[in-house]
Amino acid sequence: MLPTIPATGPPRFIAQSRGMLRVLALIERMSRFEAPVLIAGETGTGKELAARAIHYGSARRDAAFVPVNCGAIPEALVETELFGCERGAFTDAKHSREGLVAAAEGGTLFLDEVDALPARAQVALLRYLQDRIYRPIGGIRELRSNVRLIAAASPRLHRLLQAGDFRDDLVFRLTVLELEMPPLREREGDAELLAEHFVARYARHYGVAPRTLDPLDRAWLRSYAWPGNVRELDNLVQRALLLSEGDGLRLRPDDASAHPAMAMAAAPAGAAAPGAPLCSYNEAREAALSSFEQQYLLRVMKAAGGNVTHAARLAGKERRALGKLLKKHGLTQFRVAAGPAA
């Protein structure tokens, strides 16, 4: 969940980029219908924010919005959490318990990280989606529900489908409507807008004087790749606001060499060699991004002692995604530890 999401009520979007404005228009249209929605996007792009917006823009707005992180539920308990259980259904079931489907009756059930569902739970969810009837674990009576289902998945869902580790028939059921949340690096101008919003928001929250962003910070905001997306920016602004002294606010890192795009943006005019050809904006951006990725990977792998799994946790990325980046830059000498990536 992004820190900007309120516990209840419609969310507020901060955006001016064309990509996000298209997303907001789609959200408004999707709110009118009862069909299931699959929201795709990287970690921190605001998938739950979009799900809340769809719910609170719909006719179900006065009923419950029930979010559940599928990746945080132990595999053996997924069906119990979703559909509830009867007393005595298993050793620890001392009382009957209502599931999340029942808790969302009349409203919206949001399944975050649906790609983390184990195979057995995928079958149970598919069966429920076919006729909206379910049976609590250990129960005899079938129950009918009136719930709109919205799910969210990370980019790894496509890899799971290709590997046969996720049911394609379940994906078909979930993707009657599909929404793609763009990463922050593709939302031109939104990083500055969001940073200003977060500065004002946290200044009010913590009772500190509001600060302004200097030109170098603005240049860095535009050029940084934002692997953690809006969540990373939110946390960065909050930390900088609390730790900054005086009237200034510094968002950019002290080590500018770790962010080549920032170093280029901060370089004075005429710093390039006389007569050096000026490459296009896209070429410069791609070169800066590639250089940043390589240097960041070296730093995070050093901090993780060469352990890819640990590095993935530090970077806030899936282990497979980090491995793909390492391979892209020829950094294949590191080891992978057992256990799931963060």
What does this structure look like?
Keywords: ATP-binding, DNA-binding, Nucleotide-binding, Transcription, Transcription regulation. This protein is α/β, with parallel strands linked by helices and about 350 residues long. It has helices at about 20-30, 45-55, 80-85, 100-105, 120-130, 155-165, 170-175, 190-205, 215-225, 230-245, 260-265, 280-305, 310-315, 320-330; strands at about 35-40, 65-70, 110, 135, 145, 150-155, 175-180. The chain has three domains: about 20-180, P-loop containing nucleotide triphosphate hydrolases (Rossmann fold, 3-Layer(aba) Sandwich); about 185-255, Helicase, Ruva Protein, domain 3, CATH 1.10.8.60; about 280-340, Arc Repressor Mutant, subunit A. A hairpin with an 8-residue loop joins strand 4 (about 135) and strand 5. The longest helix is centred in the last third of the chain and has 23 residues, at about 280-305.
* Shape category: globular
Tell how many strands the DSSP assignment holds.
7
Question: In whole angstroms, how far apart are the ends?
Answer: 15 Å
Q: Per CATH, which architecture of the largest domain?
A: 3-Layer(aba) Sandwich
Strand arrangement across the biggest beta sheet: 2-3-6-1-7
Tell me the series of helices and strands, N- to C-terminal.
Answer: HEHEHHEHEEEHHEHHHHHHH
Q: Which band does the percent of strand residues land in?
A: 5-15%
Q: Structural class given helices, strands, pairing?
A: alpha/beta
CATH class descriptor of the largest domain: Alpha Beta
Helix content: 40-55%
Average pLDDT figure: 82
